[in-house]
Amino acid sequence: MAGIEIPVGVLFSSTGSYSVIGREGYHGAMTAISEVNASDLFDFSFKAITADPACRAETYAVLANQMMAKNDCGHIIGCQTSWSRKELLPVLERHQGLLWYSVPYEGFESHDRVIYSGACPNQNVVPLFQHILPQFGKRAFLIGSNYIWGWEMNRIARELLAAEDGAVLGERYVALGDVDIDHLITEIVETRPDFIFNNLIGDSSYAFLRALRDLGERDPAFRPDVMPVLSCNLTEAELPIIGAAADGVISTASYFETADYPKNVDFVRRMHQLHGEERGVSAMFTGPYQAVWALAQAIKACGSADPDEVRDVLTKMPLPTPVGDLHIDRSTQHATLTPFIGVVEGAAQGAAGRAAFRVINPQARRLAPDPYLVNLNSERNERLRDAVVLTSEVEDPLAGDAGFLRVVK
């Protein structure tokens, strides 16, 4: 493969309602492509074929089809929403390509044409709720952008709350990019939940957080230290845009700039040298960055850029990257990840570069992916069996003299 130039699609929205995280993903992928091309580890280089879907879900499939049919891209790094990922699936199937999807998502999918290197439910919402509910309470208000991510994350939240005898005081959705959110604030004032689970994205989320901060300044009962906002997708990239309203938000991610683990100090220093210290390094950057490096290592290992051969080899070995090794589960094609939980601090000081996440679970351990929450349901069934007793005090007309199972909880 010496001297071969391999076309790779880079498909992120740098304009539109969630362009902040789209640009972050684009820069992560392009930074890694530059590093791979400059490295003496590989006898090939990547040629980036880029496109901007402008946050229009239907445009992703059109552009992906062009990348694969006209530019011979077997691999696409990109997509920021589940809506756009779903749109790509028929295109990937038609061209037998691979999508490297590196953002957190709602799970309940395992497609042979997708490598899921972002966090799935057992690596985001489940550990977040397990950590937060004992501290703040179990009465939640759920909000989300009106598409798959919001619907499914709130559905999982309902199940987690029900399992803990919690309550959902409201569940509301707004159109993607809509910033008319006054009705959400009104209902939150009326219901006074223990916390808010925010699955809005982009401009909608920023508008909501600003309005909620204004409410907290008028009424201390709605300050973030009393009634926090929980998130599974807020990252460092968005903190300068949100400003002071980001303070106190509790978010989970597979990467925070402030996380203490091997290689991160050197990695952050290098990224600051490249892009400036005022720009935080986020999971939206490191996900695509790591995906490009993992793709390069897989191509090197199998000696081919063929998507099927790459897919087969990447589940058989850890893929070394500058951020750390990437492990892909063979049965689900999801990554093993660490669910860090962080709270935003410093945003109200007026210096955007100082806003950051303070990690509040520094001992977090890596979790194997469980996108269908099979293990969680198994644990729940175990708890149910523990709450069931065998008794013969009441006659069972179907079992004669035998005892029967009676649920006591």
From TrEMBL:
A Pfam family recorded for this sequence: Peripla_BP_5
Highest taxon of source: Bacteria
Residues making up the signal peptide according to the UniProt record: none
Listed GO MF terms: amide binding
Name of the molecule in the record: Transporter substrate-binding domain-containing protein
Annotated organism of origin: Roseibium limicola
